Amino acid sequence: MERVNETYIREAIGLANLNALRIALYQQTGLEELATMSVEIYRRENSPLELPVLAKQHHARVVELAVEYLMKGDVKKAPIPSFAQARRLMELFENESPNELSAHYAYEDLAFEDFSRQASWTHKPAEKALQNFEVIVVGAGFSAIVAAIQLQSLGINFRIIERQADFGGTWQLNDYPEARVDISSFIYQYKFVRNYPWKHYFAPRNNCAG
Q1: pTM > 0.90
Q2: Distance CA 16, CA 94 (A)
Q3: Which of 6, 115, 159, 184 lies 20 to 30 Å from 61 when distance is taken between CA atoms?
Q4: How far apart, in whole angstroms, are the C-alpha atoms of residue 154 and residue 185?
């Protein structure tokens, strides 16, 4: 394997969320020093959202540990964590322990399964009953599309009604300059779409409208 240039690595790390990088390094290396680093809560001006960020006194150390690890050139894919392991990583990232419901929701959101939160039958009706049943989905926005996918997987007939000329919902209707999602692209995407190659941390409208 060709040795990666250190300058390139440092430039890439300079774009990273250092708290997320700390957790990734901890998962890969198990270095307890990373687990003991403190976290602060940051809130952007005029935003209700709070973000756990790594305290400034640890920034330089995390950068050096990351550079050292990546310069070895022997980076292995981390194994899929168990629920308990993932919950521990969430706790370290947030600096507080998530409750059981939030932890399970977040674990599903990591999309280790091929289809997270896929609907399934407990007692499937007879095929004839299914054929005589139809669901009307109003609108062809983000939620409507995934509803249709779930209905299709269950074998339920459905029809989507949309007043606009195409699907996309709010992303089809609103096309003002620089329109984009206000949360991480990964959080916004369908979790059954694996490893989508996002080019933006906050995806622009054209990525969302299809």
Answers
A1: no
A2: 17
A3: 184
A4: 28
